Amino acid sequence: MTAPLDPVPTPPAHRWRQVRMQYLPLVAFALALGAVAVLWTQWVAPPTLIGEAEADRAELRAAAPGTVTGLNVSLFQAVTAGQVVGYLQPQPPAVLEASLAVIRAEIDVMRATLDPVSGQQRVALDRERLQLDWMGKRVELAALRGQLLQAETTLARTAALHQTKMVTDERFDEIRNTRDALLAQVKAQSELVEQLEPGIRRLSPAEADGKVSVTQGLRAAIQQKESELRLAETQLGPQPLLAPIDGIVTQSFRRNGEAVATAEPILALTGAQVNRITGFLRPPLPLDPQRGARFELRTRTQPRRAAVTAITQVGHPFEPVPPTLLAAMHLPVAAQPTDLGLRIQFSVPANLALRPGELVDLIALDP
Q1: Helix (H, G, I), strand (E, B), or coil: what is residue 176?
Q2: Is 111 strand, coil or helix?
Q3: Which of 60, 132, 137, 288 could cysteine-pair with 267, CB 3.0–4.6 Å?
Q4: Dist CA 20 CA 71 (whole Å)
Q5: Distance in Å from the first CA to the final CA of the chain
């Protein structure tokens, strides 16, 4: 009887080949299936709705018809509420000069009527004469301010051309010197008007107690011219354009020198901070949204960021879905809105730096 033979050893390469062919595909498939499950539940889960980060928006509009001057802001420049970003000249310079010339002539006529009076009457008419002189200086000041505004606009426009070598240095210096001269005249005239005003306030109208007083008709005429001058100073002078909100200039509809109509937009502003996130649930509603319900917010940036938010407001009627959200949902955007949805607003998580207009995915956490 022969002894049993020793088993033939299997080479390691043959064993590895057997493992690679029989077991490794099963292990790789199980790992891939687990990875897909994790990615699907954590990152690829379909959102309940798509939201848009919103900030305050405002438009700076013209309060009256006129010409835009001194607009000193550019696109994407930050402004604060109440900041003067330019001026509106309600009337053309020719109309300004004509209106002020009429007032100036009528004041001169009334001043001439005060000359052929007696000495006693002159004492009684001192206040009215001083008031007419003060009004005349104010007319000159209003005219100088209109000329200064035009000079400022011309200088700003020429400065841009001077930087590109389209205007000579001599011409630019001439325009700048004209502006500086007008600025000095306005300053001197303003000081003169301020010096005359206290004297007007101290003097009281002459009383009819035996002394000769100014006739009621002349006094009424002076008051009428005073009202017309105040109206001219208000309407014909440059009106400051004030930024309505804190934000960024996102659009400029008009430039310096362009005419605008009443309520016509000049600038569009967008707040720098996101105040809310707005989404729309399209019917049939997948859930009954309630205030305080929690949602998971996921950004679409790389890498993705996530945070928990909650519903702050729920709309009542169905409203047209904005085109930006329709495009994000891969729905057709029509000229006439046909897709309706229920507006829902969410709070902004403090740990996410969202940009206005950014799209985010919202997934319901509470049933």
Answers
A1: helix
A2: helix
A3: 60
A4: 75
A5: 80
> With 70 as the cut, is the pLDDT of residue 48 above it?
yes
State the virtual CA torsion across 48, 52, 55, 61 in degrees, nearest 10.
-130
Q: Are 214 and 206 in contact (CB under 8 A)?
A: yes
Give the chain's radius of gyration (CA, Å). Answer: 38
Q: What is the pLDDT of residue 184?
A: 86
CA-to-CA distance for 238 and 298, rounded, in angstroms? 49
Residue 313: pLDDT band (50, 70, 90) is very high
Residues 155/180, Cβ–Cβ less than 8 Å: no
Report the C-alpha gap between 255 and 144 in whole angstroms.
24
Specify the amino acid at residue 274: V
- Note the helical H segments in the chain: 12-22, 24-42, 93-112, 119-124, 126-163, 169-202, 216-235, 323-328
Q: How far apart are CA 40 and CA 35, in angstroms?
A: 8
Per-residue pLDDT reduced to its tens digit, 187-201: 887 877 777 666 665
Across the range 57-73, mean pLDDT stands at: 87
pTM: 0.57
* Alpha carbons 122 and 129: distance in angstroms, whole number: 9
Q: Provide the pairing of β-strand 294-299 with 57-61.
A: unpaired
127 token code pair: 């206040």
Q: Rounding to the nearest 10 degrees, give the CA dihedral for residues 30, 35, 41, 43.
A: -160
Kindly list the distances between the CA atom of residue 171 and the CA atoms of 155, 162, 167, 180, 240, in Å, as whole numbers in the listed order.
10, 9, 7, 14, 29
Most confident of 81-85, 110-114, 214-218: 81-85
Mean pLDDT of the chain: 79
